[in-house]
Amino acid sequence: MNTKTIKELVEETLFIHQKVDTVPNEFTLIGQGRSAAVFRMEGSPDYAVKVFYPEFKQLAHQEAAVYERLSHNKYYPELVEVGEGYLVLEYLNGMTFYECLVAGIPITPLMVAMVDDALGYARSQGLNPSDIHLKNIMLTNNNQIKVIDVVRFTQDKDCPHWSDLKKAYFTYYQKKYFPKRFAPIFLELIIRLYRKRLLPI
Ligand SMILES: Nc1ncnc2c1ncn2[C@@H]1O[C@H](COP(=O)(O)OP(=O)(O)OP(=O)(O)O)[C@@H](O)[C@H]1O
Ligand SMILES: [Mg+2]
């Protein structure tokens, strides 16, 4: 059997307008963001392959450099390999905070404290944690917190996303009668309003 390399599989992965168009049989889509799609790979269950959309290809080496600075820390996935327009990361078995809210899995103060700890570690490494939103934080199946998507950690500008999320968490989510489960369409609306600065946070 002629096994393809990760590089070959990435080259076979095609996008049209940031939507996945062609995927090799060996890849299964597990997540998507504004700059990349993430796949699991047949025969390598421990890997997640992040393939950047063509216009964001240059981010692969940038993000790899940040992951290298965060390596061997329990809050961040390990970087396995970097190539032209892609990263191979440790696969995280779990859910994003966004998926937790959809499934009604409670987000606890301890989980929030672990995110703070993770971001504190990044700061101690000279980084500036940015773009910390619901889809970039994961709760693994063994109750660990992992922060993913670290490419913007090298920016100079301070990002208010995490402090705003925390404010919303303690002001609303923690209230006894506040719902703990949300429809994706509702969360998407909230995210959109937040990005347009239309929320009183
Ligand atoms: N190592 C991983 N293990 C498991 N799932 C992952 C992993 N990395 C990413 N994912 C999934 O893929 C999704 C997209 O990944 P990522 O956040 O890195 O993409 P992005 O395009 O950089 O996102 P953004 O829109 O925040 O810029 C994540 O929200 C998560 O669901
Ligand atoms: Mg993301």
UniProtKB/TrEMBL annotation:
This is Serine/threonine protein kinase. Keywords: ATP-binding, Kinase, Nucleotide-binding, Serine/threonine-protein kinase, Transferase. It comes from Halobacillus campisalis. One of its GO terms (molecular function) is protein serine/threonine kinase activity. It comes from the Bacteria. ATP binds at K50. InterPro entries: Kinase-like_dom_sf, Meiotic_Drive_Suppr_Kinase, Protein_kinase_ATP_BS. PROSITE patterns: PROTEIN_KINASE_ATP (PS00107).
